[in-house]
Amino acid sequence: MWKKSKVTDQTATGQGGPSEAEQEEEKKAGIKKRSKVPGVMITQFIEVLPEGKSTPDFLRKPIALTIQEGKLAIFKANVCGDPKPEVTWGRAKGDMSDTETFQKKYDEATGEYTLEIHRVSGEEADTYKCYAINEYGKAICTAALNVIEVGFKKKKAMEQLEDIGGKGVDKEEAVKEPGEIDERFWEIIMSADRKDYERICAEFGVKDFRVMLKKLSEKKKERQEEQAKYIETINNLKHIDIKGVGIASFEFDLELKDLASRIFLYKDGVMIPYSDEEEMKHSLKTVGKKLIFSVRDLKAEDAGLYQVDVEEVNLFSTDFKIPTVDFIVKIQEVKAKEREDAMFECVLSQPWPRIKWMGKNATLEEGEKYTITVSEDKLIHRLLIKDCSQLDKGIYSAAAGIKTCSAWLIVEADSDPASHGKKKTRKTTQAGGTGLDLGKLAQEQQEKLAKERQEQIDAANKARAEEERLAREALLAPPPPDTGDGDSGEGGDSGEGKDTGDGKNNSKSGSNKSKDGGKSVGKSVGASNNDIDPNGEGDGDSKGRKGHTGPLIPDTVIGKKHTETLWLLHGIPNCLLLCMPDPGVQFVSGLSNVHALIGQPAELMCKLSNDNCEGTWYRNSKKLTADDGHIMSRDGANHKLVINRCQEEDSGKYRFEADGRKTEAMLNVEDPPRFDPDDLSAFSQPVIVKVGNSTTFKLPFVGREPMKIQWYRKGEELLDDNTTKIEKSFTQSRLLLSKCQRKDTGEIKIKLKNEHGTMEAISRLIVLGEYSGVSVTASCIHIKWRAPKDDGGCPVINYNLERQQVGRNTWKKLGDIPEKKRAVTDVVAGNEYEFRVYAINVSGLSEPSSPSEFIFAKDPKNPPGKVEDLKVADTSYTALSLSWNKPTEEVGVQDEAKGYFIEVRQAECIDWTRCNVTPIILTTFTVKSLKAMAMYWIRVIAINDGGEGVPQDLDNYILAMPPPVRPCFTDNKMKSFMVVRAGNSVRILLNFEASPWPEVTWLKDDVPLLKRVNISNSESSSQLLITSSERSDSGIYTIVVKNLVGQESFSVEVRVTDDPKPPGPVELEENVPGTVTVIWEPSPDEKRDDHLHYSVSKRDSTKGSWSTVADRLFNNKFTACNIMPGREYHFRVYAKNDMGMSAPSESPTWGNTFVVNMPAYKTCDLRTAPAFLVPLRQHTAPKGYECYMSCAIKGNPKPRVTWYRNNISLNTNTNYLITNICGVCSLLILRVTPKDWGEYNIQIESALGRAESSTKLTVRGENSTDLL
Q: Which region ranges are annotated with the description Disordered (predicted)?
């Protein structure tokens, strides 16, 4: 059992609290001081210390201890002070009077005070205090002692048994309530995920989930209330886990209310030091709100319960368990050739689901490049590295728990000169392996583990039997002699009993006062024949044991279950059921995850500790029955579920329940690509075809869609072209090769891939021809051929060779040739020819052979060399541009390049992909359709008639991203200061450029932002938004833009304010004649706004306007000069800030004015009646011309004007333009027509009268007389 001392003292985390006497002393004490040593509290008795004197302090304080029971615990301390302090020891609970257990020592040579606690037990687990006192003060520090109890405690078992007996509970009621569970359980489960509740409860033996969950909810609520004192939020809790070689860490996001709050780290209740330096054993790294605690150089003793506290409040607990796994067989060095597979393998001492493989300090995952396999017994682990290249060489590591092993992978270059300048064919061989029989080693290890488990079970059974024997002896021990005096002690027995030996008991009644004053009816048991007398009743007032002469039996047995009592009296150890819970049925081995192929059988099996227990199977929480096509069987304690033919709907979570226990596992039904064995065998046979003919490769398959199908020839992927055609369907794929040539001979491979796996099949193409070899120059073609397989029964005498130039339809005979070769010299350089041969015997000519391949008459070419100066011209997130120079020519070694192939592959892939199907001539190329920020390898291959040259790789990988650009801001005019009215939004948008995509961080006054601030980032800009600002949002906001190249920052000062409130009342004083001192109360906003200032305005009785006499005053007083007698003065005071100016605060009137009697004046009436200053005149206008009529009017108020023609109002007629500008009224007719002839008049009127003026318009023109 792990016992942790209770934390009550607030002086430092993990320390005990003061006693009542100390609290009384502290009330009388003067000054509290804090020591330089954390966790030490100093109290100074007087305000001023005499010169040369000092209060006590600790140079070295005692540290907390966690120690096993029975060991020696030692606390040490060194103190200082003048005069020399007196040192005493104490503890929070209990006394220290036992001098044999507690020994206090002092070493004069070292000045060290020591407290030794001998043979510690659980009773000594407490908080111990060390006091240092002199006449000027005292110093106190505390240290916790945690005791690990081991073994069976007879005394403790008796106490538990008496408690159970005293309460009178049944066996079922003797199970512990959740509140009695080890506190370690609550520490772990309050920080655990819900999915781990079941595992933790099983580990601590908690069965009643309902009670546990209720209690857990209460404890979580209490913890949240305690945490609310110090923290704002805590989330994203991640439990401790091994992250790398020898490193474990856990992390969470934390926002403190007070950044000065102290954070403590505990392991198994003992405070441990930590640092922000990563090379320390325990370190804390803070990234924004995220706290990452790391433990380095892991060892077995680092396992335990880690807790993080803020001040005295627990935040997070995580249980770190280090598995006892080791490597029996470590990985060995592997030497592999290029394009060969390499295998690393190891054997573990314990089953382990999956170890961590690392290559060149990077974690390796299952994929096209790597295959990770685990044996069924989970002891043998293998890593297969496919298609090794020079890039794969390096150190590879395997990690299981805290154990690691490493080995080199050496990739040897292919030294075959014939492969120079050609793409190497993928090898089917495999390098590596330990050379040992790992299966045999794993089987031996399994047997060893099974033997150890059996020994542990036997030892546990033996120990349990011993404990049962001890408990039985304690239960059956005779009671102490009974004095019969009920008043002699608390809970004593006053009843006297006499047993006659025949099962009857004659008892005399007596009375006894128990400690709680309660009464009970006693029953006695006779010892004769080990039987129970149910009629033997005693009448006593005892709450404890009754008077009897037989063996001691718990009250819970008598009258409850007679059979159990008989078992007890016969010595059967089932009596222990009264004091400990029945563990019930346990799982010896649980279910394991299963991966099965569709259509294949799958089996789930578990084993119970009881052979006679039934169970139930579930899939996805649905009960399974035999009607569902599942076979459920039981063989003793083994329970098995078999699915004969797995289908997709069989996938899911399977659960087996028995006696309230359950175990779960996942069944994953996979449908990877698969071939029929017969079809695969037929496909693997070589295909032989003659030159110029066509052939087909076909292979059916099954597997889940979508399926990726690829065909390869000699390691190069085939694409559709003139001679190659690929057909694909859901069930098969076919490759059609036409006009096969001898150079096409080689490996043919089909590769299928879907989400569940990859499958390959290999065949071989052999192209035969009558011509065994051709040697060509510009002036001669040397040709050879083979003899016919069938000579017709007669030997071949001669051969007849014919030649045809490509583009012509005639064959030219070159004569009879006795040998099977000929040098043809009558060829023209640069022309293309083909040949055929006849065999001749005594019977005549044979049929002609198949024509040879087209042969150019030219000198042979050597493959080109490597391209030169290969470089990346430009990059983006989806494309990159390459440029290079042609390879140099060397006579007889490498010739001129005629074209180029560009190949690309992602870092995690093993196959190169050609970007161009046909060679390009230019020395530049743009690779497109890349994934942003992906890593790519690029190479360029030169080619000519002699073949492909050696690939030229870039020196390093390329990231699909624009060229690196140091972050910089692109806005020319960026505001570094802004004022925002409180309640309005704050929006800061900054544009920048950077490559690669930068990390953008915003800070406010050099600390992280609050959650209410919204940050929106894009590729080239970042925006800070506060939707509703408050005054507390004022500050300096800094943006930090950082990437691999560098970083840039910019700060903006934001001032959130509002219109200031006006100053308080204004008073006027005259301290010096001719001056007035204006004094006012400050504005309420003065304390909240450091930019607030004041302005003073003045107005005297001789002037009607206000003038500013003072501005930007940061105090509350101003003296105005030049105050003239006989005038009245008024003052106004305004409060100003960055937002604006407040309403004024008025001062009282200052001074007196002279009184002057002014005569009364009669007011003038300026109103006039409407009248014409200039009346209308007669108008005669030609037809088609414009006519303009005008007059001048007067009147006050301004009169209303109306125009009439023949007594019809024209004001609303759009054919006339009517205006009235400054009393000049006009009417305009744009084009006069005979219809406009008539009388026009204008009327003006107001409240004072009306006036009128008229005129006539005469129209001249053709037939004008007819208009009259």
A: 1-33, 416-556
